[in-house]
Amino acid sequence: MLSLVSVHKSFQPSRSLGLEIASIWRRRKEGQAGRVQAVKGLDLAVRDGEVLGLVGESGSGKSTLGRLMCGLYRPDQGQVLFRERDLWTLDKKEMKGFRAQVQLMFQDPASSLNPRLTAGQALSEGLIVHGIGSRASRGEKVIRLMEEVGLSPELSRRYPHQFSGGQRQRLCLARALSLDPALLIADEPASALDVSIQAQIINLLLDLKAQRGLTMVLISHDLALVCLMADRLAVMYGGLLMEVFPRPMLGQVDHHPYVKALWASVDSTSRSGLILDGEPPDPQNPPPGCPFQPRCPEAGDACRQKPPPMVPAGPGRSCACHMRV
Amino acid sequence: MSASTTPNAPGPPPLAEIRGLSVSFGRGEFLAVKGVDLELRHGEVVGLVGESGSGKSLTALSLMGLLPHGARQETGSILFRGRDLSSLSPGARRELCGRHMGMVFQEPLTALNPVLTIGDQVSEIFRLREGLPREQARRRTLDLLRQVGLPNPAQAAQSYPHRFSGGMRQRVVIAMALALDPELVIADEPTTALDPTIAAQIVWLLREMAKKRQAGVLFITHSLGILAGLAHRVLVMYAGLLVEQTLADFSEPLHPYTRGLLGALPPNPSGGRPARLSPIPGHPPSPSERFPGCPFQPRCPESVDACLRGLPPLAEARPGRLVRCLRFP
């Protein structure tokens, strides 16, 4: 449905005044422009009807990838293809059609809802922008959407601050579904919520996926959560994909060392040993070669030379590791 | 460290003891903590678990005497090494808490002063509390930073907090909490802001440091999985009340709330994949809500009429295991 072809994306790091000054000093000292490479030449395809789980630590580039997928960011290099067409060659009208097809659900429901719009207004806004339906039919659609995500339609006149965290996330989900998208990208949909509420949202996503036949990209740092929902897993580290594999393969194959460490941090039966030393790479100052190499227990000389290529490693699986080629 | 229950044999008095603690907000109308009893011994790690608004952080802050503005201790007493803290003058209490208790906060960036270097902030502790001269304080600081695993202590000491990653900042906060070899360490969600592989490092570090110093540790978290292999026992809070004292690996939870929490977690991926999760219906109550009986009753799948008729006591259900539920006499 959607594929990324060797996409790159870099940012001028945003910063507060204090950090700005600190970084000017540093730049003067080190003489570099200090652009951050968030996504470094990455290929990934989302298949029709699947749930693709995108896993990685903060700063791994997973949220950037999500935003590239839905056209919020334009790649510096490479292409984003939606149904075989390059997103950034579409004309204005086609782009509008694309945006209705691919919707993003953000991590923090409090800051992604307009505080001045009631729930009903938030849900009908997309319909109005895309010129769908009459005033009356939009009202009906709002009621259907609210019922679909388990909100009482009586709440449609309320403002976001009058909802609880879990209700707000339901509202965000209803808004993302209001245009009946083909692809839903959910960026950490449950991590801002309490444990008992998280499960409610996850169940709702599972139900909607089954009822609507949604294709989904689920972005999360929580491997256990992703495993619950995803058909395939894509694990990112330092702006690169480390491994892509079908979920049932987890723990059954010789995984990338980073996937092994992640797995150990979730699986209590293997908790005993694997605690990684060190820190994720500083995006402004990445290590040479493989981004995981400074923390990798298996790293060799080749790992410090150049980044590992993604190579097929079994049915439906590919892995980027010099030590596994 | 293996999970085991507290030795019940009579011995020295507990390191810290909270008796019947209630904390209110506003003009006493909202009780956020309702009669909590808690005991902590030397070398013991106790987990305190609950969702937001359960009162777990306020319980810990009361122990330190650091209740935020607007919160007030209504009833109860806090004993540290057998002394009632409320009998002390504010200055004496500050001295006692500052020297013998250490606190690790949830968000390391807000716990550190952005305009002081790491070295200045850490050595300040030695200079103020132990009156060490600058050079000696600096040496102690570098030594301490090395102990918490900062790779280049001399360089780290000269850096400002914003130059550090979250994990590194949390190491600094841990260093400051452990600087004076406290007997009691309170860690309030120390790993919540961190990535999983970094969280594992921090838990390991806290555990090793506490073991070496035989300190008592109160470890507050909402993530249940982290406590296995770390804590000796776990206390579960709901709506300002202790509802259960259970085993750290949650192998046999008794209270319906504890069981509900465990059921709501995504299962270990190595097992089978369930079609859905089993969430607890409804949402956690706000402190302003009042309940005639058990506060979990509206969400409880096993509630009976009697649950509405009064709050059940926290009673011993199995040796060393306490439950606040009618079903467990």
Write a structural description:
The complex is a heterodimer of chains A (325) and B (329). With 325 residues, chain A is α/β, with parallel strands linked by helices. In chain A, a hairpin with a 2-residue loop joins β4 and β5. By secondary structure, chain B is an alpha/beta fold. Chain B has a domain of 221 residues: Rossmann fold (3-Layer(aba) Sandwich). Helices cover 29% and strands 22% of the residues of chain B. In chain B, the strands form two sheets. Chain B has an eight-stranded mixed sheet with strand order 6-7-8-3-9-10-12-11. In chain B, strands 2-1-4-5 form a four-stranded antiparallel sheet, with helices on one face. In chain B, β1 and β2 form a beta hairpin. In chain B, α4 crosses α5 and α7 packs parallel to α8. The longest helix of chain B is centred in the middle third of the chain and has 18 residues. At the A-B interface, α1, α7, α8 and α9 of A face α7, α8 and α9 of B.
Bulk shape of chain B: globular
Biggest sheet character of chain B: 8 strands, mixed
Mean pLDDT of chain B: 88
Output the number of helix runs of chain B. 9
Indicate the CATH topology of the largest domain in chain A. Answer: Rossmann fold
In whole angstroms, how far apart are the ends of chain A? 29 Å
Average of per-residue pLDDT values of chain A? 87
Contiguous runs where pLDDT drops below 50 for at least 5 residues of chain A? 28-32
- So, the CATH homologous superfamily of the domain at 16-105 and 185-267 and 276-323 in chain B? P-loop containing nucleotide triphosphate hydrolases
> Helical content of chain A, roughly?
25-40%
What is the spatial order of strands in the main beta sheet of chain A?
Answer: 6-7-8-3-9-10-12-11
Largest binding interface between chains? A-B, 43 and 46 residues
